Amino acid sequence: MSTIDEIKSRIDIVDLISEAGVKLRHSGRNYTGFCPFHDNKHTPAFVIWPESGTWRCFGQCNEGGDIFKFVMKREGIDFREALQKLAARAGVELKDLRQRETPQQKEAYEHLRRLLEDALVYYRTHLFNHDKLLDYLRRERRLTDSTIETFGLGYAPAGYDNLLAHFSAKGYSPQEIFDAGLLSEREDGARFDRFRNRIMIPIRDEQGRMAGFGARIVDPNDPSTSSGQASPKFLNSPETPIFSKGRLLYGLDRARKPIRVANQAVIVEGYLDVIALHQAGYENVVSPMGTALTEDQLRMLKKFTRRIVLALDPDVAGQKAVLRGLDAARSAMDREGELGFDARGLLRNEARLQADLRVASMPDDLDPDEIVARDKAEWAKLMEGAKPIVTHVMETLAAGQDLNDAKVKNQIVAQVLPLIEDLPNAVERDTYRQNLARLLRVDERTLAGAPARVPLTRRRPRSMERDRIIEVSEAVPAVSPTSRIESYCLGVLYRRPDLLYRLDRQLQEFGLSALAAEDFGYTDHQVLFRLVRQAVEQDEKDHHHYLVSHLPEPLEGLSRELLSVTEKLDLLEERILEELVGRFIDLRRTVAQGNINQLRFLQEEAQGQGGANLKIYQEQALQFTRLLQSLDLAKRKMSMKRQA
């Protein structure tokens, strides 16, 4: 994924534009409002297509684009400045994404990992000298000695300088120990052991390399574990160059192959749950770092499977957690040690990643490790019975409620219907509406008049919530159909700029206009196309050298992706030209048809409001209709030429 694609995936165009002061309302699967770029208070001529992440004004502006184009036009800045602004909002570090790990950094990181491996041995030695704690793990947590050894469990002794003294004696400096995340620092600069009187759980990255530790409290009343403050049940290593909570999944190094074999990944809340389930033979299980699930973590899992089950602990999967998950402001979800459940965020991520996300609730107030201890086979049945997110939300909200009460029904509809309307698949939407109607014993037709979306609310910048569960602010799919066509066509032209003039002539022979930047709906594609156009207009013979030497840094990731898309493409000129012409005709046709459909809706609204702007919409619809006719004619000419 390029830098630009990552930014697009993290920012919801609906949120971005609504926060700019544009009042939006749901219109089918799209949103409409008054254009912020010109005066028009009669009919809403400004339209947003969330699925493609694009907008268009059908009024005076007659312009459109994506999130970058909106910010550029709104603030009068260029693409680079808009990229920097949106990257900051999305929490994407542009500089870091361009830098590669230097040999010096690699050696420094390896040094930290060696120190952590030594710390693992240190903690493990202390555990096997602590009979009471070993007995707890064996009896209370039901872990075998083999499992304790396999997962490298250890114990951090009480006291503030045990580890510091031990590693200082081995030649490590306090700064090195601190950089590894094993020490904490007081306000006066004094450093002390971060982990004290805790069960230590080594955390490795996807490749099995040491990254840090998770630490479970042994005695909540031990003041040494918290320095006088409330003791968290679990304490992770702090953020270090090799430990980032949002980019790691506990147990993934051992779960990779089992996930592929089972074609399913299961996410649980606790580290010890992962260990117990692996011991029971369910090795396709992982856990986030005690915080809310992040996009990076789900993307890691997607490399191994598209089927992901959230196995929520009973204290998290209840009504309050679900309701919090539906509330965009969910400040309670930032607490350490709680796996957040955000139905809307998960649904949109499911669509974007083309994954199958399901939810399995734990019965009888039991944790996952208690379930496999009671009956190992029960766990498999629970995973097989995992339910789609919408079904889970419906049943959870309805549990224990008086479904004969009209107000209760209305409350459930207000929570569930927005989720249903956000689903990209029409069949799924209809199915869930039917299920909701049956659950509440109401006529399905009454749901059509229910509110389609909860009110939009402002959200905190992404940079403030890196470890939170995927938000509504990430609604744009990674690749829309239009974006795929644009990427393919642009990839061919980027690889073979010399084809552009011949492509223009082919289009003009079929009665169509030459290719223009406006044929691309995404700003980064437009910028790159203009560069291709500039390259072929130069006197230099090596057009590709011009492209590489003039390529803006923010587009380097996009250019690599485009080259990879067309790497194995047969670039025989006649065949590729014919295909490009066909693709661009299809692209123009898709855009024109979408605009006509939206203009019909705007005409109906204008008629209902006294006819304001009706003539403008009719004229635009006529223009797009004529364009469709010319595109269809070009298709027929292409077919006749092919047959000749």
Helix content: 40-55%
The number of distinct β-strands equals 16
Rounded radius of gyration (Å): 28 Å
User: Mean pLDDT, nearest integer?
Assistant: 81
Helix/strand/pairing class, anyone?
alpha+beta
> How many structural domains can be distinguished in the coordinates?
4
- Globular, elongated, flat, extended or rod-shaped: what is the shape? globular
Number of distinct helices = 28
N- to C-terminal distance: 43 Å
Strand order, sheet with most strands: 1-2-3-4-5
CATH architecture type of the largest domain: 3-Layer(aba) Sandwich
Unreliably modeled segments: 96-100, 315-339, 452-478
CATH class of the largest domain: Alpha Beta
CATH fold assignment of the largest domain: Dna Topoisomerase Vi A Subunit, Chain: A, domain 2
Strand proportion: 5-15%
How would a textbook summarize the main sheet?
5 strands, antiparallel
Task: Write structural notes for this entry.
The protein is an alpha+beta fold. It is 51% helix and 10% strand. The strands form 4 sheets. It has a 5-stranded antiparallel sheet with strand order 1-2-3-4-5, with helices on one face. A 5-stranded mixed sheet has the order 13-12-14-15-16. It has a 4-stranded antiparallel sheet with strand order 6-9-10-11, covered by helices on one side. Strand 7 (183-185) and strand 8 form a beta hairpin. Helix 16 crosses helix 17, helix 22 runs antiparallel to helix 27 and helix 24 crosses helix 25 (543-550). The radius of gyration is 28 Å and the shape is globular. The model is unreliable at 96-100, 315-339 and 452-478 (pLDDT under 50).
